[in-house]
Amino acid sequence: MALREGTYGLLAEFDTPTQLVHAAQSAYDSGYRRMDCYTPYAVHGAAEAVGFHKNTVPLVTLIGGLLGAAAMFGMETWISVWAFPLNVAGRPYYSWPAFVVPAYEWTILYAGLSAAFGMLALCGLPQLYHPLFNAPNFRNGATQDKFFLCLESTDPKFDLNDTRGFLDGFTPVSVVEVEY
Questions:
Q1: For the residues 70-89, what does the mean pLDDT come to?
Q2: Where are the beta strands (DSSP E) in the chain?
Q3: Which of 6, 20, 62 is nearest to 147 (CA)?
Q4: CA–CA separation, 153 and 140 (whole Å)
Q5: What is the DSSP string of 30-64?
Q6: Model confidence over 84-135: pLDDT tens digits?
Q7: Residue 144's CB: how many other CB atoms inside 10 A?
Q8: Which of 75, 84, 86, 87 has its CA 20 to 30 A from that of 119?
Q9: CA nearest to 43, candidates 124, 122, 171, 146
Q10: Of the listed ranges 102-111, 139-148, 155-164, the one predicted with least confidence
């Protein structure tokens, strides 16, 4: 059946995390790739079941920390050598051991800020609206005691009737068509 205009996907509701992980793994093995799990707490195995294996936040944090250290060393070098050179007790203008502690502090600052803002950016947050908010069962149970699997209509394998039949095979509590 052709995709109806305005359909975001199909949302299956499960009572236990084991059912959710089993359904998500089966969907991934069947060829579905545009899907996501929604749970009230972290469920072991759910991320692997939907094919999520990468995490780039550590790389963003490392790059932020290195930029912080380089920025502080550069700023201290510029101030001490070119902008305001002071002869203190006959020491050289570029006395790098004095720059280590402030550079370390900036490394921590930049790494922490990069981790926080990088995580928000990579997660696509803040997101004030999502089509799943239109599903009545999602509004009440997603943050309390229900587990959801959403197969999105942008998936090449998605067909409304076939996908609904596929999800019904896992005996979910309900399968709801989500509108945009």
A1: 92
A2: 7-14, 35-38, 147-152, 174-179
A3: 20
A4: 23
A5: HT--SEEEE-SS--TTHHHHTT-----HHHHHHHH
A6: 998 888 888 888 898 999 999 999 999 999 999 999 999 888 888 889 988 8
A7: 7
A8: 75
A9: 146
A10: 139-148
The tokens of 105 are what?
């502090």
Domain map (residue ranges) of the chain: 8-50+131-179, 57-122
The pLDDT of residue 1 is above 50: no
CATH 1.20.272 applies to domain 8-50+131-179: no
Q: Give the separation between CA 163 and CA 12, rounded to whole angstroms.
A: 11
- Starting at the edge strand found earlier in the chain, the sheet holding 147-152 runs 35-38, 147-152, 7-14, 174-179
Total H helices, total E strands in the chain:
6, 4
- Sequence-distant (6+) residues with CB within 8 A of 35 are 24, 27, 28, 50, 149, 150, 151, 152, 155
Which DSSP category does 2 fall into?
P
